[in-house]
Amino acid sequence: MTTPTDPPTPGLLHRTGRWCARRGVLVLTLWLLALAALAAGNRAWGGTFADDFALPGTSAQTGADLLAAHGSPGTTANVVLHTGHGPLADHRAPLDAALAGLRALPDVLDAADPLTAPGALSADGATATVAVRFTHNPATFDPSYLAGLDRAVAPLRADGVAVEYADPLGQLAKPKGADRTSELIGLGTAVLVLLIGFGSVVATGLPLVTGVLGVAAGLSALGLLATGVDFGRAAPTLAVMMGLGVGVDYALFLTTRHRALLPGEPDPAEAAGRAVATSGRAVLVAAATVAMALAGLYASGVSFIGSLGAAAGVTVVVAAASALTLTPALLGLFGRRVDRWYVRRPVAEGPAVHGNGESESRVEGADPWHRWAAVVGRHPWRCLTAGVLLLGALCVPAAGLRLGHVDAGAQPASRTERRAYDLVTDGFGAGANGRLTVVVQLDAAHAQNPDRRAELASALGSALAATPGAASAGPPRPSSDGALLVSTVTPASGPQERATSDLLHRLQDDTLPKTLAGTGTTGYVTGTTAAQLAFRDVLARRLPLIVAVVVGAAFLLLLTVFRSPVIAVKAALLNLLSIGAAYGVVVAVFQWGLGGRLLGVARPVPVESYVPMMMFAIVFGLSMDYEVFLLSRIREHWLEHRDNHRAVAAGLASTARVIGCAALIMTSVFLAFLLSTDVVIKMMALGLGVSVVLDATVVRLLLVPATMYLLGRANWWMPAWLDRLLPRLDPEGTAR
């Protein structure tokens, strides 16, 4: 029979951590076997990654569906040709050989002759585009497909003709080493940070081993999921960035707590169990918050965005599972030898102020983080004002945010799609890189009467050519079955310029409705550029919904965990402020061009349409990571002695070092991906890296403690009726 003096029964997390620590070899073996099985399965059956901007119900998607249904199936990609001197017609024999080679390739439906195809040859005859029609998007092909392309066009290159591959075909030639280099830099920086921050060699290695194994398993699982889910091509890189960052962080928090508990526990396995029972709960809440924020991207109603969030969420979930099982297993294997090898005196968590009679001034004098907490406590208004002014200043550029698509013209000159873009610009004008396709669905009267169809085609062609912003318009031609009229409009501006977007809306909202009024026909504007601009418009309209869903869900989670409406509201507002600052930095660097060339971005570009939405979900989730760990420790001390000032000081001091090191590791992981050749990845890397730095310094070390000092006991106010309604989730196992 249990008496009041009996120790409490260990919870599930406590028992799980202790079990893993006592069976370290078994747990490690199971993880290695699972990793090997997932990797083998991915190699044998794994899917591919390609961008799919399909938006059912939009003009661009409807037009594309009509083309596919009436004789133009598949995906078209251009091979760009350029002679150093003289017309391409002088290279007729090698051109015929190259066309025959292209048509013979697997998955190729046709390759148009540029000397006879309308609009495919420049005015001087030196530049041409070969429209190659594939059964499906060539970006999903294995990179080895590129070798077949090179063999097909070899006769032209041998005859002195330059051959480049435009998007999406050029994606097959994307360099593969940059992301691997970024991963190695991130890991190398993590090693240095952990060694300097904590001193212990073993304590440095455990989070890294856990993080790397978790990422490897998560990536293999993602590859298997790609067989049935359409993931964007940025999905693997995003998954590595997220998985490696949070994986190392979660294992670090557990390892640090274990080392703080170890001196007072005779059994190292029991210390590991207690670490999982306390910080492990915070890991669960943090991972759930990140995954919830990423899942909120499905509220956009755009499968492309939702799947990118799901891809990152997969590695976050696997990283949390790895941290909660593999970390205690490794800690159990090393036992008390966790600090046996060190480069300097090992450091665990900062000392906490307890109600044991020891003066706070003595502890604060011995620990710099207590001294910092005391400084903030003495000047909360000054600290709050300084932090808000700094973040507010960084938010200013975000007011000029312009969404768009980063085209191939912003890629490095080493990329074949950039060279193809430049050749097309020089030969045809910048607008030729973003041509718009106009599709008119005919009624029976026009489809069956050639004279009426020709009359409509003439009127339509004149109207399209006269539309402001159009450089030229091809004559509308009937589809093979006569059900459609199809024309190509070449903008006078490049694909990512605002004028091209204005032209698209002018065609959709003005030219086509007026020209086709009373004819019984319907017009649509489609093509790659039209689809990208439609994608941008849809995301811009739905971004507020994503913000509301993610912020609302995070508010409810924090309210349930910390039983405080004040803390939940404060966390949401401060996170919104730090995200706005990160947006501002991205706008200043990429859209304004301040320092963009240092990052390998040739010219100012708009912010990629889906980057703000992705950044918001990821940054909000990661911000909640540090919020949960900091507030969990503050609440632990508050429940111990009900002194708000001491609780804030002790919580900040005991977590500042580990949060700082964790943030530095995650920042290094993100910023290392600035080496990527993909401008959108650079954009995400800079935004995420800056947001983590701001969150771990200005927000966690300045704004959170300053506001909590100022609010005092109001931090912990909770209406009784609301307390009864909410379920109880306790991240640190300290509920009273």
Verbal overview:
By secondary structure, this protein is an alpha+beta fold. Helix content is 62%, strand content 7%. It has helices at 12-22, 24-45, 59-69, 92-103, 145-158, 177-198, 201-225, 235-261, 268-295, 303-334, 360-366, 368-378, 380-395, 416-428, 444-448, 450-466, 498-516, 528-562, 565-591, 611-641, 644-672, 679-711, 720-725, and strands at 75-83, 108-111, 127-134, 161-165, 403-404, 436-441, 470-473, 477-478, 484-491, 522-526, 607-608. The strands form 3 sheets. Strands 6, 7, 8, 9 and 10 form a 5-stranded antiparallel sheet that branches. Strands 2-3-1-4 form a 4-stranded antiparallel sheet, with helices on both faces. Mean pLDDT is 83; it is low at 1-6, 350-366 and 731-736.
Please outline the major beta sheet: 5 strands, antiparallel
State the end-to-end distance: 23 Å
Q: How many DSSP-defined strands?
A: 11
CA-based shape = elongated
**Spans with pLDDT under 50 lasting ≥5 residues?**
1-6, 350-366, 731-736
State which percent range the strand residues make up.
5-15%
- Give the integer mean of the pLDDT values: 83
**Spatial extent as radius of gyration:** 30 Å
Structural category is alpha+beta
Helix residue percentage: 55-70%
**Tally of separate helices:** 23
